[in-house]
């Protein structure tokens, strides 16, 4: 009734409080409409309906500029800024992404998706505004979970230093993806319990002004306080208490599970496709580590706010007790923590998605590798077939990690290999080891892996041949098998097939030997070519007569791509690869 | 008198307070002895003499474990832990490094040199201790300047969460390298002024216990408070007020200049070699930017705690006013800030040393490049001839940055090029641009640079030839010239010489053309080979008959190397390169 008339924030300003309450109800329906069909972030968006309505009622977007941290909770903002059809109209779902996007709307200022960046980015908008002499409001909206990240802290520190208008909305729903971890959260609780009045106030200690909103679903309270800070001439935090999943009972009661969901039935909350697959590397790793913990009290698993990535659901976390550490969304700390644990005799295993590991280059290099401390890092979703939205691409970790001295980065192709490598990584004491977890399902070779991984950089020749050698890394090994088979069947070429296993080093002896009976070496990697594995092989053969073809993903901005199409575009199919090979050797 | 008897912390425990006061005096002499001869961190070490003595008096290193943040202020710790000869004996200076080093002593637990890592690393030591069931004290010593870094915050947050023994000494000397920036520092001042008693306390807000030491040079007060927290069963912050440069008048009075110094005369403080060289890229950039600021109020220069890197001494900072921003030691924020400024119409220029840029991969990729915001980043000390201690190597930035989509990373060889690129970067609005500042002195070509940098990835052929093509990147261009000259003089080969300028892209047309009359292409880069520029050229020529030789630095741990020796080891001299070339083409 009201939603259909909302085409821009101007239309929100025309409503009365009662009408906005009705609008809230309609927005929740629209959210659940899309989320139940398409999946996405459920709890976070349901929790900010009234807050977002109030923000658009009080402020004047896009002159006043809003930056939503991570932006997974910006669906309501999208609905109110001319994009409601992405939520009400089944056919238009794909036109609107799950994160901020300036390509969609002038009301979005950045593409973002990693945590804790909103305040810093907003500081930039504010600085430019101040230099120009403008007077618009700059508003960052950040969840309490995201306050655990170092970049958020740097942002708060600098917002206070800058001293001019900046409104930082802290959306406190007492949750990260799972529960919050960190000393700060005690203070947030004290603030909530004292309704913002306790003397010891983290935000004030950071030099910021401070307001508290007790009921973040009460439009009167929201509008009243936000109006107070509108056009304020200095930085201020508005600390808002909300309920994650508000308005959808099953989401309110199961906050962790309803952070993000696959399509589900609105009436019951049941997933449309039951996700009972336990045969994933995530789950198998969790099982393996829990057993390792029982046998050795010095084994500790680490996560930075994403426990199920490493296979630790609530039940396993409880069993693991002190041997499971969630550092909050603080990947840099997670790596340094792992290094320190290893230095003092512990056996740390840090599990993280490739895209979030990007936060930790310096810690990997300095805290961990310069010290050569034996920590284990498991890198998930590192693949074309991993997450595919622009801010969660998992294709950059090879380039990121493989030029760090002392790092041993392994790429298993099969389940047996993976666990052999994991076992080695956790028992050896000589190297920091990272393992690139295959992302295209759990495939068994059926053969025991007897490799001695302490002998670094020895590639495994799985099929001896001539003319052409295929070096197929990690979860592209199976693609390598297909290419070898096709060459054999259709072109009578018996290619050599190699499972390199080691990303961080060259098997010089093998590569030298291949010169003898081969004309062409091809490399396959599930990652960006630039700075990747294949280029090292090309460099090795540079001064020789051997020709090299590197296959991987060309460096470009990727967003919501279709994996098979991207593979084809990069000639990463057996048909195309064989075509290219034949062209070269014939 | 007392120092000569100190061979381990045990010997410190035998002293009375008066004897320790005398020891303080002798330690200052020893410090100045080394620093005046060898150079190093002056102010920071003079400021922690009494604090370090007290720490070793109260605690039992190495069972109790100390982690010094950055560790540039750990000279006194080294003196007291069996390494005094590195400070008293001129011949032994080289045996002791300027940073923590487990290779030197069991009293050091990590090699480190980047800011804000101590608390996280200490958390790791503590976690392993807890799992083992040990009871030693874990102590992190961190300066107030380092508290601006996100990793320190993540550490504090998690130390509080862990809840077990951890003693965090905050050494508050009211300084970073230059002055401190950030809202937090207001609270630190309130804490100092209220002698630790004010209600609003940042550390307590982070969930930590807290003590304050008013006079960080008073051994009685230090020992008394440290004794209180010894064997404490929960995390605690001991906030100590010290004076940077204490005991050396000229250092106390000129804190910024005496943070780090070249060799000087003890009597006067005057540098032994007057450093009046203003013909550096640092200084020239500062001059250029200050002028740009006067013409355009939207130009803003950014530093993360190292203002003179971008040429902004105190005087220039004062003139620049609001157009110069020091974010404190918070490189991640600096990049995001730059992106936000650019998004709102400003012209940001962030200057930073290569090694510290390592902190910002994710912000470069996500905050800046995915948004394609036109910020400029100037990368200094990016060279074999930059800083050479293990935690400050400037050879990894090419691998780090050049596989990020949308990033335009330029490598000038001459002064004219540098300023042409800088001008283009600051005026264009299409790309985030980084410029790799030459590190081997300012060299003029004498010719105006008329390149249109908006046409990306066009390399410049500076000498047309045949057979051999030399692609010499950035400050190795002059080496390329020498190789070309030698080939011509001694081998009658007129090589093609190319100044590529663009690190982040291939000039496919040129490289294709080179296939015609050349057999061999060589690349020269002042950086690590793995993941670097040359490998992209190798990949391009992989499927062809062209041979490629890549020259750069092989990936390995480097520490206090001699640049010319490292170059030779990597065959980066004209003699060796010509040798290799002749072997291939003859």
From TrEMBL, chains A, B:
Family annotation (InterPro entries): Dxylulose-5-P_synthase (IPR005477), THDP-binding (IPR029061), Transketo_C/PFOR_II (IPR009014), Transketolase-like_Pyr-bd (IPR005475), Transketolase_C (IPR033248), Transketolase_CS (IPR049557)
EC number(s) from the headed UniProt entry: 2.2.1.7
Pfam families in alphabetical order: DXP_synthase_N, Transket_pyr, Transketolase_C
Keyword Metal-binding included in the entry's annotation: yes
Coiled coil (UniProt feature): none
Cofactor(s) this protein cannot do without: thiamine diphosphate; Mg(2+)
Keywords assigned: Isoprene biosynthesis, Magnesium, Metal-binding, Thiamine biosynthesis, Thiamine pyrophosphate, Transferase
Recorded family membership: Belongs to the transketolase family. DXPS subfamily.
Quaternary state and interactors: Homodimer.
Protein name: 1-deoxy-D-xylulose-5-phosphate synthase
UniProt source species: Clostridium gallinarum
């Amino acid at each position: 009734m009201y939603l259909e008339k909302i085409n821009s924030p101007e239309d929100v300003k025309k409503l009365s409080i009662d009408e906005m309450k009705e609008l809230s109800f309609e927005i929740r329906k629209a959210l659940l409409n899309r989320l139940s069909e398409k999946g996405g972030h459920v709890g976070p968006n349901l929790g900010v309906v009234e807050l977002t309505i109030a923000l658009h009622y009080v402020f004047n977007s896009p002159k006043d500029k809003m930056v939503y941290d991570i932006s997974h909770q910006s669906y309501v903002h999208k609905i109110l800024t001319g994009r409601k059809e992405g939520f009400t109209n089944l056919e238009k779902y794909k036109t609107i992404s799950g994160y901020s996007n300036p390509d969609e709307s002038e009301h979005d200022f950045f593409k973002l998706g990693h945590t804790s960046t909103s305040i810093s980015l907003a500081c930039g908008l504010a600085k430019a505004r101040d230099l120009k002499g403008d007077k618009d409001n700059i508003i960052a909206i950040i969840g309490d979970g995201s306050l655990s990240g170092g970049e958020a802290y740097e942002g708060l520190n600098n917002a206070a230093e800058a001293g001019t208008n900046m409104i930082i909305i802290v959306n406190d729903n007492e949750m990260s993806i799972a529960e919050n971890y960190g000393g700060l959260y005690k203070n947030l609780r004290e603030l909530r319990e004292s309704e913002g009045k306790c003397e010891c106030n983290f935000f004030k200690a950071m030099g910021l002004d401070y307001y508290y909103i007790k009921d973040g679903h009460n439009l009167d309270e929201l509008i009243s306080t936000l109006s107070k800070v509108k056009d304020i001439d200095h930085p201020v935090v508005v600390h808002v208490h909300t309920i994650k999943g508000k308005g959808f009972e099953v989401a309110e009661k199961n906050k962790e599970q309803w952070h993000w969901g696959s399509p589900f039935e609105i009436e019951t909350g049941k997933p449309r496709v039951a996700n009972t697959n336990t045969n994933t590397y995530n789950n198998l790793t969790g099982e393996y580590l829990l057993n390792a913990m029982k046998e050795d009290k010095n084994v500790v698993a680490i996560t930075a706010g994403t426990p199920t990535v490493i296979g630790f659901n609530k039940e396993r976390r409880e069993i693991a007790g002190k041997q499971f550490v969630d550092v909050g969304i603080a990947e840099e700390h997670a790596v340094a923590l792992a290094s320190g644990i290893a230095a003092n005799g512990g056996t740390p295993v840090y599990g993280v998605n490739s895209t979030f590991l990007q936060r930790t280059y310096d810690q990997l290099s300095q805290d961990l590798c310069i010290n050569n401390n034996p920590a284990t890092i498991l890198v998930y979703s590192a693949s074309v077939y991993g997450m595919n939205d622009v801010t969660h691409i998992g294709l950059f970790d090879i380039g990121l990690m493989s030029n760090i001295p002392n790092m041993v980065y392994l790429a298993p192709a099969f389940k047996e290999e993976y666990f052999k490598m994991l076992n080695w990584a956790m028992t050896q004491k000589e190297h920091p080891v990272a393992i690139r977890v295959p992302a295209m399902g759990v495939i068994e070779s059926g053969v025991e892996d007897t490799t001695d991984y302490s002998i670094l950089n020895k590639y495994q020749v799985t099929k001896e041949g001539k003319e052409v050698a295929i070096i197929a890394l990690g979860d592209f090994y199976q693609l390598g098998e297909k290419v070898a088979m096709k060459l054999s069947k259709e072109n009578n070429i018996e290619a050599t097939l190699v499972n390199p296993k080691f990303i961080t080093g060259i098997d010089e002896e093998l590569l030298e030997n291949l010169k003898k009976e081969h004309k062409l070496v091809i490399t396959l990697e599930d990652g960006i070519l630039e700075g990747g594995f294949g280029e090292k092989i090309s460099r090795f053969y540079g001064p020789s007569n051997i020709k090299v073809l590197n296959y991987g993903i060309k460096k470009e901005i990727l967003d919501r791509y279709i994996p098979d199409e991207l593979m084809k575009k990069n000639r990463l199919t057996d048909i195309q690869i064989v075509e290219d090979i034949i062209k070269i050797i014939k």
